[in-house]
Amino acid sequence: MTTFDDRESAFEAKYAHDEEMVFKAEARANKMLGLWAAEQQGISGDEADAYALTVIKADFEEAGHEDVVRKVAADLEGKADADAIRAKRAELLVAAKADLMKDTD
To answer: How far apart (Å, rounded) are the C-alpha atoms in residues 7 and 26?
Structure first.
């Protein structure tokens, strides 16, 4: 292999790792959002965990996060509007990324 081949392999590995970390952070943030939304609805325990899983799965419906926002907004039935949910998700994404960074140390 040449130096360029080595560099290409290294860049590909870094890209794959970065994409995996983004996916994990997004999934973790969605889980945290689901647990928060469950709490807002008075749901706890295993039921809250099951609800959080539905929020994670909702993110696979379409590109972006509006599918998650719509689901949570509909489930909260007016307890939080879409902007508040987006803000909460953004806050939780920061926390999820920090958690992942701690886990990889």
So the answer is: 28
pLDDT in tens, 11-55: 888 989 889 999 999 999 999 999 999 999 999 999 999 999 999
Query: Both ends of the chain: CA-CA distance in Å?
Result: 31
Supply angle C-alpha 10, 12, 13, rounded to 5.
65
Model-level pTM?
0.86
Helices (H), the chain: 3-40, 45-58, 66-76, 82-104
SS3 label, residue 24: helix
DSSP character at residue 41: T
| Distance from C-alpha of 33 to C-alpha of 58, rounded to nearest angstrom | 12
The C-alpha angle with vertex 53 and arms to 23 and 82, in degrees rounded to 5, equals: 80
Domain boundaries, the chain: 3-103
How many other β-carbons are positioned within 10 Å of the β-carbon of residue 40? 15
